Amino acid sequence: MNKVMSRAVQPRPRHRPPTRRDTRRPGGAPPRMPSRPAATRADRPRTAPETAPRQPRPTDLFADRLLAVLSGQRPVHWMLRHTAGHAYDDLARLAERSPLRTRGARPVVHDIGYYVAGEGTLEVFARIATGERLRAMAFRLERGRDLRWRCTAVETGPA
Asked: Which of 29, 48, 60, 110 could form a cystine bridge with 127, CB 3.0-4.6 A?
């Protein structure tokens, strides 16, 4: 069975932003001197640098994009490049009703699962949390010849 449940935890940056180290400016602190001799620093084993952050999955990206449109945070034409076939028309009809719009808490993607229907085709479902309520959204992604993912079908649960 090819069904997968996933929602990658977004990593937090583990370092502070770089600071300016320009000694030409007045009032700048003098450069720091190492507290240990250089020989002991060279003896220490080197660790591998952190790997680059992983790219988000297309399932996560499209779930967030569709949620933004269906909750009224973004206009429908924002998804024009990311849809194919009748999906844009279906999305426009759904967005008129704003099925995921709320008055209180902002809706967020709670969980995502997908099924690999074939080569280059994913059927995705997402649980949308709005405060205490959970809603459902399903969509289909197909990979084109240009290797870009496009949404080809969109549905939401009953209102």
From this structure: 110
